[in-house]
Every structure is written in structure tokens, then in C-alpha cells.
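Q: For a teaching session next week I want to show students how multiple molecules come together into a single three-dimensional assembly. I've collected the sequence lines for a complex. Could you give me the predicted C-alpha cells for the whole thing so I can convert them for display?
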Amino acid sequence: MFKDPDTDDYLPYHTYKRKKATAAANGGGDAAKPEDDDEFEYVEDRDSSEGAIYPIQRGRIVNMAAFLAFLDHVHQLLTTSYHNTPIVLMASPQWTRGDNEIIARFIFEKTKTPALCLMHSAFAAQYGLKWLNMTVVDIGYEKMDVSCVWDSNLVAHRSLDYFTPGLEAGGNVLTKKLHGLLKDKGFTLDMCEQLKKSPLAEVLPYVATAKNCMELPDEDVAAEPLAHSVVEAPKINESTIAAPSTAGDVENGVDDKVADEGVLDVANIVTSGNTREFLAKKEKEKAERAKAKHRKAQEAEAAANRPARLPNAKRKTNTFYYEETVHEDVQVPLSNGAPKVESMAPPATNGDAAATAVAEPTPKVEGDAAAAPAPPAPTGETATDVLPFAPEATSSVTERRTKRIRKDIEVGLERFLFVDREYIDQVARLIYNTIQSIPELSKRPDCWNNIVFVGNGSRLRGLKENVLQTLISRYLISPSTATMFTSELPSNMATPTGTGSQTPTGSTSGSLPLGQLPLPTTSSVNPLLQAATTASLGVPGTTTADAHASHQSHAQTPTSIKLAQLPNYLQDWSKAGYEEAHFLGALVAGRLVYCVHPGNDMVDAQRLSSLSRVDYK
Amino acid sequence: MAQPLTTASVPTDIYGGDEVSALVLDAGYCQTRAGFAGEDVPKSVLPSFYGAIKDTSAASGSRNVFGEDFIYARPDFEVKNYMSRTESVVEDWDTAVQVWESMLLERLQPERRQTQPSKNGLNDGADGEGDVSMEDAATSAENAENAEKPLAESPLLMTEAPWNQGKAREKAIEIAMENWGCPAFWLSRTPVCAAFAAGKASALVVDVGGANTSVTAVHDGMILKRSIQKSHVGGLWLSSQIRSMFDSSDPKIEPSHPPQTQLRPPSSYRAYEDERLLTEYKESVVEVWRGPGRYSNPGNEDLVKTQPGRIFEMPDGSNQMWREQRFRVSEGMWDETAQLPTASEEERITKAQTVPELIRACLNAVDVDLRPNLLGNIVVTGGTSLLNGFNDRLNNELMGMYPGMRVKLHAAGLTTERRFGSWIGGSILASLGTFHQMWISKRSTTRMVPALSRNAASKGFLKSWRLRIDGAWTPKKKSR
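A: Of course. Below is the structure for the complete assembly, covering every listed component.
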């Protein structure tokens, strides 16, 4: 949100005042006139974040007025017809009760919505991932919170505290850390952000014995200069695909030439009479040769690329492409009626392809320049302009041009080091403390067995795995050898009293409902043994089985730590990752609450799941 | 599958209690709990322990951090507590205010600074239904006076230990009214709240907490002052017994790792961290001998030795099977001769400090006619009462002590209800529509404070009817 300089309202985009082009063009005479409002125009710059107000910081709403204005703006964008739709609003756990009240009031009074459902984000994630019991670890931009949901009830929640700086987790925190490491090498925050998002930056697997619990690659495999041996960001894949293919074409062309150059004794062939036969044979030879040549070329290429095939984690340095958008004001000569967009600089071929700036023509998408993939331009430097909001010019005009510049930059081990032990420890500790703070011991194992990471801050490669490994190595209670093979009874069986009442009651019988007595009635296998033998296997399907009939051999937890299985019936989501599962869940919940018409027995439940306008009044 | 709805978790709209968001604050030695009235669990639970970081620039020489997340080893760090270990009342008022403010104002944020009605967008456009705020001139003048006070909209209910002193009560009122500008305030005794949480106006409340165990008779919502009994047999005492057991075991068990870093954490930090582990040990291993009779009676220990034990894994990965030891550590609560040797003399308990004796002393101090009723309504609350077998043993002991009397224990099934019993009672109390008439209002305090601290508040809230001098505070209707 942006503050309007003139009024106290908030605007969705950075808007600034500038002299109208016409006025400027008309020259000095007009400019002398004061108080002419028509001279100025307001320009929305959708890319700029200058002077932005961020209503939510670290999950908390810090500027309610701005937040409400933002809600209003989003609502306007989404409302296209006069049809009034109910609203599901996902509430962050950090929002206080007062916040929720104000938001509810605002929504009901400002919009015409018939019903509002304010939804805790952990439940939203639960709707998205369908598990009844789970621990939702939500790592966001600058916040992190852990919520334990048991049987669709929130049983424990903690978040990294808002109030003390220094204790924070999230995507931006990592960017800042990366920046701290790479500042000396001239990296900007924006570059670090892109580097973090690229597959180059990753969290190395947890190695308990190594220093700082990570094993850094030490041999300098990438020392030889390799221009194209780059693990590239998916966005620019097209260009690399294009490059080898053209190279291949060239080679084929050469092959053809070589083949043609073989001097044929035409007369001999003609005289021999079997011209057709000979030609066929020749053709075949040529094809074989070409094939062989091609294979050779391929092999060579593969050989050249071999070091590059090393996974990123094994390479000491790696190169990443940094793409930046540059705005500049350029004087454009008068062009009457001609199309506004024109190629300024002709493609200047640049032989040195390794380390020069590569610019891509930006598609002519108004405003949102990043929307469509750019056509590849493998070499050379081009600049094409976008005039998102240029006025109808009649004469020489200042245009705002947007260029994309691509650089490739070599980064060293910093790309692994920026996620330090401290950070991982903090995340792991928060998860541990939260789950262990569930008051009922019997609920803890279920929460340990279904850990889910959501939020885009957890998107970083390897982060989830490392946190899980850290949790396992640090907190997992291994089944004791003392009783694993000897005792028949699970150790949490209550001691039969001397009075002869031999009915065993669970250790937590007070708080356990009847169907959940922790006795392993179904199997005679010692649950400890079962736990010891199956925990490491990760047998598919065990998570579902464990959800309720889990062993409660140890009162002490955790005896196993697992990530929850993610659903695989939504292909696009599986591909893109479930980091935004809470949004998916909110969609699902919205449909369940407002669109599906259930049987009579569910009507009440459906009605109670949101606040309707009638109830509001 | 689902837990039945308890008295505390009935939806708030039935009370009509959500008209105002009253706050409830319950401070104990181990935890401080705060939340909104009408809810079933406190929103914010912080350890009463806090970290003091040496900071020469600060006036007091140190900077305080609150909350579990901040209590980690760092240089020049000390873990302290603002409550008194022996009394469970506030000891360090300056820090208490800081802790409470951090909980009530920052974490709960009951009222954020509202934007002006003209600017919050609610009244824009022709269809804006936001009506004009209903405050009349008088209240808006009062509001202006309270404008800078952080809690000017939220009534506050605080709990206090039954043996709380008048001075402390005065101080609490002063903080709430003067510092925070609460429009209404009430101090309620923890046993009364715990009894209310169990749905009773008359009960014998056995509160086995972290630092203390207290037994109090509550009659018609008033505590009987002579009946108050307390001793330090609580969770921390039990921890010291476990420590003593670890020390004497072979090989000696160190509850927490010796520090591996260069940083030498102070002993207070070490003790705090040990306590975490001991809590886990208490949760999963320690058990109370259920009776009948004492654990030390011949034959019992042999019986236990034949039973499967429980395993506990220490943070260093070593694990051990516990059989008879887990009964022995808790036996001191019932039988002073069975307690393990303690490091310091003040940790030792006498016969009068065991749980059965506390109850006996409490009952002896009340009228004979009341005793049967109290014995039939015993409310067990407090986190340490969650020990496995505690209620069975208590029942057995009482049956032995009062043969022929009807003894009935009421202990909440939900762990949270037991741990936050007095907070929940306070939450129920503060959300009752009728209770709003009894709040001490801002205007009446100015005259009342001296009288109040002498006797009024100590006589339970029924008496406070007479104290409503000029109109109780009534909730303002919120402008919609």
C-alpha cells in the first residue's frame, strides 16, 4: 500500500505526479502559468516499491488502516459482477482478537458480502492436506509459526516472537543473511534474492560429524573455465536449449559439406551402368558418416559438460544468471503515428558469450513485464522497450523504458553457508518446543508423525530435509534395548494395584476417550519392537495407519518423526510444491462451506462455520 | 472421539460475555497466564522466569527478556523470577509490570489504536451503515482523559494467592487503574476461581501447583481465611527429589549436558533448563503409589519390582529403566518419612506439610457443620496433580482419614483445565453478565482504595455489592 501524498487514503500502487508530456512539449510559455492542474498527471508505477507501506510485518498487522485499504483493493479487483459472494479470509495466527473484530466489522460494513469465514491458517493448511492430526510449520517472509492440530483442534501454537528483533526466521531473513555474506562482492539485496530463489542456493544435508553439521564441497571441480556449464534457473532454460540445437545445425551443415566434397568419378559410375545402385550405396555411406560424426560431436559435448553435471551441492563455485530490470528515461525522437515500440539498438553480436551481459527483449506486456517468458536471445545485446504508460506523444518525448539485463555471476560457498546452524537450530527448536508443549502426552506422537512445512520461506532447497534430519538426530527417542525384546507389556501400562484390580488402565486414562486406550489390542508384537523396525523404513501407508492406532509405548516423545505425506491427486500442486497449501485449503474450505449443499445433518455445521450477515447484526 | 464440551469451553455467545473483552491475568511462580474472558484457555502463557541480560547502559544494569524463546544461553545472562518462591506472590513489582505489560498489551493487544471513524473507511459512501459512536459527552471526556492509557477499554480481572497481603493488593489496583487506565478491575482468589472452574461455589480446593500446594475451603464463593493451608510440596519440590535421586544413583545422572560451548551459562540458567527435562520426566515416568496404605508398607516395593518399568532417555541418548524409583520420589508428598535426602534444609518437609495433613488441618479449621459438604466437594487442580495416580492416592488417603464420610474428588479430565484451573475460573467469572455489576469501577476506586485493601476485597465478591458507590462500570456498547 502506498500513502497518497494529498489525502490520507492509501493507494494500491506507487503513484507519482509528473508533468504531462504535452505540457512539457508545449514549451516555456505554458510552463510559466502557475496553478494549472492539467499540467500534471498521476502516473501509476506498478513495479516501484518506493515509499511503500507494509501493513503486515512479521505476521502482525502493524498498520490497520493500510491493511483494510488493501483488503478493499483486493476485493474490488475480485468483484467483477453485482453478485455478492461470501468471503473466506485466512487469518494469520499472529492477528489478535481485536484485529479480527475490526476486520470483520470492516468487511461486513464495506462490502455486501453475505457471510464471512475468518480461518486460522493452520486449519487452512489442514484442509489443503487432509490430515486430521498434523503439525503445521509455517515459514513466511519474516515470520515463522508452528501450530499443532490434533483431531482438527488447535492444541498448541508458538511463533517466533514478534517483539524481539534477532529471533526471526523466514525468506527475507535468509536473503539478508546471504547479503551479509556477499556484500563485499558487490551483491545487492535484489541479487541475493534471486540467488536464493535459484536452485544454486540450497541447504546441504545434515551431517552430524562435520563442522557446523554440513559437508561443504572442497575439491575445486569447477576451476576450469566452462562457459556454459551452468545449472540454470528454469526461467532461462529456453535459451540453453536453443543454443546447442543451433550448434548442431551448424555441425550438420559442415558434415554435409564434407560429404559433398568427396569427389565422385561420375564417368565411372555412369559407364558401370548401375548408377542407381551406386547412388543408393553412396547415400547410405554418407548417412552413416554423418551419424558417426554427430555421435562424436555429442560425445565431445557430453565430455565438455561432464563436470557441470556434478550436482550443485558438490561444486565449490557455480554460476548463476542474474536478471535485473532497469528503468531509464530515454529521449525518443518524434514519431508520428508510428508504432510506439521499436527496437532501439540493433542486435549487436558479441563473440564473447561467456561473461557479458545478455539482454532479452521484453515482451510488450503492459505493466507486468515479468508475466510472459521472453523469447530467447542467446548472444548479443538487445534492448527492446516497453512503454507501459507513455502518453500520446506528438513530438520528442521522454519515455520510460524497461530493459532486462542478464549477467552471470560466479558465487562460491556462500550459497550454502547462508543458512547457518543457528537458523536451522532455531527452526528445529521451535518445532520441538511447540509439540512438547501439547498438554496431553497422547497427542504428541500424532503431531510428530505429521509435520508439514508450508509458506514460501520453506521453499529453499533442502531446508525441510535438513530440519527433519536435525530433529531426528537431536530429539528422537530411540527405543530402548532394555525392553525391546524382553518385555511383553508396553511400559506405559499402569501398575496393577495390590488390591487385585488387574485391569490395566492407560497411563493417561484420565484424558483418553474410550476408543483410544493405548493397549495394542490388535497385535501381539511388542510395539517398541515394531517402532524400532518400521520407523526407519518409512513404509508407505504407515502414516495413515499410525494416525490413530499409533503405539504409545513410551510416554516420552518423540519416538518417530516424519513429514506428512503430501497428497498426490492434484498434479499441478504436486509439481509446484505444497508451500501454499494453506491457500489451497482455503479454497477447499470455501467450497465446502459455501458451495456444497450437504445433507440435513450437516447443515448446522455448515452454518456455524462462518458468520453470516444475519448473525452479524 | 471428541472430548465432551466442558463447562469452560461452552461457546462464549451464550454468556453474552463477548460484549466487552475483559482480560484475565493469573500469575503464579512457574507460569503467568493471560487471556480473554470467556475463552477456555489463556491465549498467552509465559514462564514467570525471565532473562536478565547485563546491560550497562540500562538504568538498572540489566535488560529483561520475557518468554521461553528468549531464555537461552548467552553471555552475561541470568534467569530470574519476579514471583516469590515461598509465597507465590509478586516480589519484584517493577519486573512484574514489565511482564504483564508484555503479555497484556503486546501479545494480546486487546485494543489497537483505532483509526478515526472518519478515516477508517467505514463511513464512506452512501450505504455506509456505521452509525455514530454512542458515547455521550461524559464518557468521551473520560476517554480523553484515558486516551494515553493502554487498557482504557478492557476491564481486568487478576487472581491472587489467598494469603496475599493488603499492600500487594493495593499495588495491583494502582497499576491497573493508574498505569493502564483499566475502566474496571477485580482481584479474585485463586481457590475461588478454581472452584468456579469446577462449577462449584463451595468446595475444598486442593491446588497442587509448581511452587506450592495449598488447601483452602471455599464457601459460597468466599474463602474461609482460617482454613488456608500451604506448603512447598509442589512440582519444584518433586523436582528436587528427582535430582536427589539422580545424584544418589549409580552412575550419577546429570540432568542436562555439560555445556559444550565456550559459553558458560550461569547456574540459574542451568537450573531452568534442568527443570524442563525434569518436567518431561515427571510427565512420563513418575507415578504416585495408588494405595491403599503407604508405599513403604512391606511388600509394596517388591510388587512394583516385578512390574515392567518405564524407560526414560536423557538428552545425551542414554536411557534407563525405572521401576521402583519412580514411586519412591513422589512418596514424600504423602509420607514425610519416605522423602529422599534433600540438599538444603528448607526443602525438607515436616509431617504437617504433607498433602493429607494439609487437608486435615484445613478441615479442622472450619466449622464442623461444613465439613461433610466440603469433603463431598473436593476440587483437585494444579499441574502437579496430573501425576499418574495422584487422585487415586488422595482418595485412598482421605477414605482412611475420614472413614464413613462421603469423599468425592472433582478433577478436570482435560490437562489444560487442570493446569489453568484458576485462570479458567477467572475467565468464567469475568465473562458472566452478572459479574459486571461487581467490578470495581475507576471512579469508585479513588475513594475506595484504602478501605478496599483493608477488608473489602478480602471478603469475597458478594460483599462488594455494598461497595458499588457511584454506579458500577457498565460495558459500553460498541459502535458498530
